[in-house]
Amino acid sequence: MKPKRSAKIKTFEQAYAFVLKAKTCLIFGSKTSDLPSLWDVVDLPGRQPGQSGWGAKVEAVWAWKNELPAQFPDEIFYGKLPGGLAMLMSIEHLRDVHYPAHHRPVSACSPLARRAVELIRSEPHTTAELRKALSPSGAISKSKVDSALVEL
């Protein structure tokens, strides 16, 4: 079981430093993983009774998971681990540790994953754009598309 981490992160800059120091962290905590999570270390208030919206903590974590790799694409990667857990990883750790340990050729991936690679190679896409491009009619479920992306 992972030790409880003290909450201390309140800013985007602190979240950035946390991801680089952790090398790999989940976005939200998980009982099935020993990895630290951004959620567990953020010290912002949740939604208060009578307050609309998600609360500062959820809003910050949700925004940072997108903003960190967008603002620092050469330093932070967003993706999913096998099993589908959303995570942030330092590009250095991705390049030096994760990729060599988990790489498999695209030819060994499912046909849907191979189609995703073709789209990604042609131009950058958000996950939502990839889902729509891979299944314009919606015939392929979100979970099947997400599973194909996890393969990559």
In percent terms, what proportion of residues is strand? 5-15%
Principal-axes geometry comes out as: globular
**H/E order of the elements?**
HEHHEEHHHH
- DSSP summary: helix tally: 7
* Strand element count: 3
Distance between the termini: 29 Å
Helix content: 40-55%
Verbal overview:
This protein is mostly helical and 152 residues long. It has helices at 12-22, 38-41, 56-71, 91-102, 111-122, 127-134, 142-151; strands spanning 24-26, 76-80, 86-90. It has a 3-stranded antiparallel beta sheet. The protein starts with 11 loop residues before the first helix and ends with a helix. It is globular, with a radius of gyration of 17 Å. The longest helix is centred in the middle third of the chain and has 16 residues, at 56-71.
What can be said about this structure in brief?
The protein has helices spanning 12-22, 38-41, 56-71, 91-102, 111-122, 127-134, 142-151, and strands at 24-26, 76-80, 86-90. With 152 residues, the chain is mainly alpha-helical.
